[in-house]
Amino acid sequence: MNLLILLLRRSRGFVALAVCFGLMTGAASAGLIAYINDVLARGGGLADRGSLLGFATLGVLMLGARVGSQLLLTRLQTNTTFALRDQLSQRILATPLRRLEELGTPRLLATLIDDVQAVTQGLLCVPPLLINGGIILGCMTYLAVMSRMVFAALLVFALLGAVSYLLPLRHIMGLLRDSRQTNDRFFGDLRSLTQGLKELKLHEGRRKAFLLQELFPTAQTLKQLQQRVSSLHALTTSWGMSLFFFFIGLLLFALPGFTHVPATTLVGYTLAVLYLQQPLDASMTLLPMLGAGTVALRHIEALALVPAESGPLATTPLAPPVAPARIDLVGVTHAYRRDSEDLPFTLGPIDLTLRPGEILFIVGGNGSGKTTLAKLITGLYAPESGAVHVNGQPVTDETRELYRQHFATVFSDFHLFDSLLGLAEGGRADKVRAYLTRLQLERKVRIDAHGALSTTDLSTGQRKRLALLTAYLEDRPVYLFDEWAADQDPLFKEVFYRELLPDLKAAGKAVVVISHDDRYFDVADHLLRLESGAISAAPSHRETEASA
Ligand SMILES: Nc1ncnc2c1ncn2[C@@H]1O[C@H](COP(=O)(O)OP(=O)(O)OP(=O)(O)O)[C@@H](O)[C@H]1O
What CA–CA distances, in Å, run from 414 to 93, 264, 410, 417, 545? Predict the structure, then answer.
């Protein structure tokens, strides 16, 4: 899909009107040149009032049509750019988590920041290109009418110019594509730079190796690609323009030697060709930007994000979830396939059941598949085989979004928003205060009437408590904590396992806890131990089949 189609999709009527204005600009420009040529041929001065009026009318028409076309297309471009940003955010949220994980954060960031900007700039090129196209068309028509023979010669030059411009342009497009790929790598390096600050500051050798072997070489490749694009473009543009001067030279000095060309034709041609130089020069400058926008747009499409029509804002608001009598995972599996690994990690098949008022502990060594299972339980991953049932009804692709609304979670890589995003509204201020006190955060964080947090610059353990507060406010039927207590001090660990979890259980919540704290395994009603993606065959004294 190219940028023009993107604009057309947004509003065919707008584009058609703007193109008409563009053509009018071109026709009026050609008319003005004809007038000027006419005046020059007569040795200056407009013959009569009618001619003066005609000249003035064409001037106003040209300016009016140009401004009209520019305004229409610029407005359309701004609307399309903002719609693209909004849609992209919605599409990312509608795309399955697994696909987003495969794409990786650097690629998504590069798209959200760079690609959207490149598309915006590409779209900005469309209005002037269309207007210039109209002017070129108008002038060419005038030239064809003036002298077929000279026009044929001009066409040969124009063709030569077009070929010698388009061939390098293909190469420029290839360079732009390479540059776009390198940009993904560059964003990956920038991510390492910002997230690895401590590690890089603390180890000089690592810092140097990172800069010299990763960041700088990628930046250098990017710079070289961009320089090659600029140089090639400057060369082809200059070559194209010099062809025009060569043509004028031939017209003025060589052609009269072969055949008789009236002086008015020579003046008219020289005038029109010189006039054409500006729109042609501008168009040639704009085309690579249009190309970069097209490459960026293709890149966005290649992400294969779910269409915005099924995005989160497109669906009707979901009703608050009703506590299910049971949730069953029946033979669910999930595998991570990576080219770099001989054997993919496979989780399952897993059977388990969640019931209100019951606590399930999921335990096991690092990499045994606990977090993966948590993503399957919460509907963040769709099972590759097997099924999830709510009260005996299978969860399908259509109902998975609704299913996810049953869960309040704190994953180990949770994100803390700097606002409660609607959770503090509806007279919940007292609740918020009570939870802050219970989580021993009342001296650290204040939450205003709109739910904005006074700070999120807290210790890891405190940030996790804030995340827990958010989960409490969500008040969902099922709670899932992924190694929540790992960063808590012994006292608060005790509070979490001996008070908070039993309270949730007493409130009729189903609770899933991923834990390494074997001191507290007795809190669980069921305990599921994972080993290399499978339920361990050797349960300890409290371990029961979770599905029992
Ligand atoms: N996004 C991913 N892409 C590819 N492989 C993954 C991904 N996430 C996890 N894995 C792999 O799946 C396996 C299980 O990971 P998982 O995070 O589920 O384990 P875990 O039991 O939660 O580990 P830990 O106790 O260390 O948190 C690991 O071998 C890991 O390398």
Answer: 16, 77, 6, 10, 29
pLDDT tens sequence across 52-66: 787 888 888 888 887
Residues in the chain, how many? 548
Give yes or no for residue 336 CB within 6 A of ligand 1: yes
Percent of residues, the chain, with pLDDT higher than 70: 91
Q: Any residues with CB less than 8 A from the CB of 515 and at least 6 apart, and which?
A: 361, 362, 363, 483, 485, 521
Q: How far is the CA of 206 from the centre of ligand 1 (A)?
A: 26
Q: Is 425's C-beta closer than 6 angstroms to any atom of ligand 1?
A: no
What token pair was written down for 180? 């776009």
Count up the domains in the chain and report the number: 2
Residue recorded with tokens 């200059």 = 238
Q: Which residue range forms the structural domain that includes residue 412?
A: 327-535
The Cα-based distances of 171 to 97, 193, 274, 295 in angstroms read 36, 32, 29, 13
- Specify whether 286 is located in the same domain as 336: no
Interface confidence, given as ipTM, is 0.97
Whole-number Å distance between alpha carbons of 12 and 380: 39
Report the pLDDT value the prediction gives residue 43, as an integer from 0 to 100: 66
**What is the C-alpha separation between 484 and 526, in angstroms, rounded?**
18
- Report the candidate in 220, 260, 289, 274 with the shortest Cα–Cα distance to residue 3: 289
Residue 158 CB coordination number (10 Å): 19
366 Cβ inside 6 Å of ligand 1: yes
Whether the CB-CB separation of 533 and 367 falls below 8 Å is answered with no
SS (H, E, C) 72-91: HHHHHHHHHHHHHHHHHHHH
> Is residue 372 within 6 Å of ligand 1 at its C-beta?
yes
pLDDT tens profile 474-525: 889 999 999 999 989 999 999 999 999 999 999 999 999 999 999 999 999 9
In a domain? residue 314:
no
